[in-house]
Write a structure and sequence with these properties.
Oligomer: homotetramer
Order of helices and strands of chain A: EHHEEEEEEHE
Strand content of chain A: 35-45%
Largest sheet of chain A: 6 strands, mixed
Structural class of chain A: alpha+beta
Number of strands of chain A: 8
Shape of chain A: globular
Number of helices of chain A: 3
Largest interface: A-B, 31 and 30 residues
Strand order of the largest sheet of chain A: 2-5-4-3-1-8
Chain lengths: 142, 142, 142, 142
């Protein structure tokens, strides 16, 4: 299964009055890691999003926050693909700064689109090129 | 243990290009429910936040998103206090629209403050009036 | 022209490490005021958003921030409709706490929809019932 | 005066149900450009933020949004320093994609800190190394 690394600098915009990253923004970071992985894959994520509205909403997500994250921190998210099903995949994330794990978590993403005006989303099979990318035993950098 | 109900209208601001609420914003809703509960309790949450910087950051959180949430939806979050420890408490949330459960989740919150310049947060015992409020078998509306 | 009042409690979620509301969130407040006004009007804002994708994106916005806004502040946004054109309208906002003006600003909103897959938005005439609501010399509460 | 260029890929997280970037997030982009400029300058922005709580909140901001911005867009923000005063500076921004201007705007930022528990922010003189960086006739990339 694929392992993916994505690095960035934590922005002041993501902090709260406690002086640390507001925890729902940590789920934005998880989403950022998955979006970066999708863009790095051979699957045309942005093209399909624009042409058909297909994307990868989350069915589930969880996180544990073991140390505060500050504005200016240079962090890396290590994302491991854990499971790939017909329409969905599961990833595990670790946010690391200087070797220290600051947060861990997971997401289950489904390939889906929402037809205009519909009140439900419609699951779609994972595209073959994305499936191959996710299930390959390899490492990539975002 | 306390059960707390908090109702609001979902804002366009919380949606994404999929046309539904972007999932990290569902954790903002969970946080909104807890903040509303804290404000409804006899504990002076805002006064203490301002005077000493003490607050209730999350140690853990998780959610499952079973149905899309749309701008304009009138939703209620039902929050059940599940466990109250020396410094932390755990709540379970259900977001409901017209009797349909749209999302479920949980949070573990710790009473803590971050001294200015410190790189770690410092756990504090739960205030007695908040503990009593959380552990009372009663229902309240936010 | 209509004057509209919208009151709410400032959330911890909207603050930053400076301990005050992060300024882009003040534009979210302006947007909240306009969305509340739209929902209070006879025009079916949510129904049309869902059925046709029509909405009111901003063409312009500006703000001046004269005093910090804190979590827990009970604020009112006073919104004055200033100008109503064929497809767009202009509003002026004041955010007030206990009689003190904390921020002022304005927005120009256009009635528009974005056809799926299109790379531009398409301006639409303002609906008659919304035009009447905006141009009436009256006060309303959100 | 300094001109600064900052490039990034627009995230799905920043879009709304209209399928385009939600306009308050364009002010987050302006803030991102200024924060990137501050980090590129010889002034120790992050170190001072952590040690003394000093930062650069906005006094004013404005924007005009001439074309929709989409998830996946590769954009550049061109930031021109326009005016540098004792405690504050003013910048002008242009967000560009493939040579097309999508949005323009400006911000006035003050050097300030908020003493813990205070209800007002306290203006500070601009640090000399930052002043020199801002007023130098040069171009830099973030």
């Amino acid at each position: 299964m694929r392992t993916f690394f994505c690095s960035f600098v934590v922005r002041f915009a993501d902090t709260d009055a406690f002086g640390i990253v507001y925890y729902p923004n940590i789920f934005r970071y998880f989403d950022h890691a998955v979006e970066t992985l999708l863009r790095a894959s051979p699957y045309d994520y942005i093209g399909n999003l624009r042409a058909t509205g297909a994307g990868f909403p989350a069915l589930e997500a969880g996180g544990a926050f073991s140390a505060p994250i500050f504005a200016g921190d240079e962090v890396t998210i290590e994302t491991d693909v854990e499971d790939v099903r017909t329409r969905a995949f599961r990833v595990r994330h670790r946010i690391v700064r200087d070797g220290q794990v600051l947060a861990t978590g997971y997401e289950v993403r489904i390939h889906a689109r929402k037809p205009p005006g519909a009140s439900a989303i419609e699951g779609l099979p994972l595209p073959g090129d994305l499936r191959d990318y996710l299930t390959t035993d390899d490492i990539a950098l975002g």
